[in-house]
Design goal:
Arc Repressor Mutant, subunit A; elongated; about 55% helix; about 190 residues; two-stranded antiparallel sheet; about 15% strand; 3-stranded antiparallel beta sheet; alpha+beta
Amino acid sequence: MEEKKYEAIVEAILFTMGESVELERIAKTLELDTERTKKIIEHLMQRYEDDGVGVKIMELDGSYQMCTKGEMYEYLVKIAKQPKKHVLTDVLLETLSIIAYKQPITKAEIEKIRGVSCDHAVNKLVEYNLVCELGRLDAPGRPLLFGTTEEFLRSFGVQSIDELPVLSPVQVEEFKQEAEAEMHMKLDI
């Protein structure tokens, strides 16, 4: 079979599935090895970038998904009559950051880091499909473990959690000093 036919099949799979599809599943469907399949997908991804079309193919942690390019958002809003926009407050961002960097993590561990209850924040993040339950910890009470989702990866434009920025110890110390200074200012008021 020629490359164009394989690309058409990949395109049909990704369009029809609507969600991400693992490289191995695509390769099995094409009856090709994963290396050749990946090259076909990468060529197709490049074509979408070059052709100036409104969609693209994203790689998400070893899976691929067809999605709309960001610059098309304003037109989608016009036709969809304002889709529900999720607002990430400071509390939600802080909780999401903890989950992203420490996953899998329990609510108790998040609360220990934040120093306050996180039930509402975690529930909102699950509702927004940025966080999901990954199972249960093998410990007394069997608490739920939480981690990030593919929607998190899409929303923050990374292919895997390994691409999240790493803070140096110096930056961590600076953040601690800023937080302490801010707390002192609030207490003085």
